[in-house]
Automatic annotation (TrEMBL):
This is Putative spermidine/putrescine transport system permease protein. The keyword Cell inner membrane does not apply. It holds the Pfam family BPD_transp_1. Keywords: Cell membrane, Membrane, Transmembrane, Transmembrane helix, Transport. Gene3D superfamilies: MetI-like. Belongs to the binding-protein-dependent transport system permease family. CysTW subfamily. The lineage of its organism: Bacteria, Pseudomonadati, Pseudomonadota, Alphaproteobacteria, Hyphomicrobiales. GO terms for biological process: transmembrane transport.
Length: 279
């Protein structure tokens, strides 16, 4: 009979297919991408990074990318946090309706949704018609090809990725905690601020990490809703490869974007660890 230690040593066999898949299709291409960012026709050099960070326009692109990702994440949190409670606290057919309305749009391609938003945001679109009908404006507001339109479209696409992590945490909350606090004289705001909110922080961190990472790397949405008037790092990558035919520049921008994504992942893991240690 084999000992538990011998059985444990063979668990790597189960992980081998997944590790091999990720190595070949993820780690290896990333390694080649990193190598290409240092490769010049004559030798290996960091000059591509020096040139990239030495150009003020590239700092403008970085700021555009970070700002749009931050705004998208903030609005997704404002919309998604209360929506997650509504989803968790609803019952029966109403909860099923909420789940379907949340998950069904994920089956629609992002290109289709982005094109739909170009119709909604144009001067004779539904949003402008509603604003004029309600008396908020006398003439159409320019929304298409603006940062505002970009945020509208991005929030619509990414808000489910904020709702689901928060919803999964809320479902695990013991309702007796809030009842016990109210029995001891705690008001609704105190119960939320001292009990509910701290317990849902892991879901908030996960949702922020999901949405910010996705918004940081979005390409289709800014391309269709804004175009090159509002350049982001992902658009600069595509422009470098497809139009400029500059592999070194494209790989350099891609590595910069990858570093930002890794920072988000590491920071979210660190925060989640701190939260677990304090609860």
């Amino acid at each position: 009979m084999k000992t538990p230690g011998e059985q444990k040593d063979r668990t790597w066999i189960l992980a081998a297919p997944g590790v091999g898949y990720l190595t070949v299709l993820y780690a290896l291409p990333l390694g080649l991408l990193l190598l290409a960012s240092f490769r010049l026709p004559e030798a290996f050099s960091i000059s591509a990074y020096v040139d990239f960070f030495g150009d003020p326009f590239n700092w403008y692109i970085i700021w555009n990318t970070l700002r749009s990702a931050l705004l998208t994440t903030a609005f997704c949190l404002l919309i998604g946090y209360p929506a997650a409670f509504a989803l968790a606290w609803s019952k029966g057919w109403l909860q099923a309706l909420f789940l379907v309305s949340l998950i069904l749009p994920l089956s629609v391609g992002i290109v289709v949704k982005a094109f739909a938003w170009t119709i909604v945001l144009r001067s004779d679109g539904v949003l402008n018609q509603a604003l004029m009908a309600l008396g908020f404006t006398d003439e159409p507001v320019r929304l298409i090809f603006t940062e505002t339109g970009l945020i509208f479209g991005a929030v619509n696409v990414f808000v489910p990725f904020m709702i689901m992590p928060v919803y999964s945490v809320i479902r695990l909350l013991d309702p007796r905690l809030a009842e016990a606090a109210r029995t001891l004289g705690a008001g609704p705001l105190y119960v939320f601020w001292k009990i509910i909110l701290p317990l849902t922080v892991p879901g908030i961190i996960a949702g922020i990490a999901f949405v910010f990472s996705l918004a940081l790397a979005m390409y289709v949405i800014p391309t269709l809703l804004v175009g090159e008037r509002f350049m982001t790092l992902s658009q600069q990558i595509a422009r470098s490869y497809l139009y400029l035919r500059n592999e070194t520049l494209g790989s350099t921008v891609a590595v910069v974007l990858l570093v930002f994504s890794l920072i988000v992942i590491v920071a979210s893991q660190w925060l989640a660890g701190k939260v677990r240690a304090n609860t």
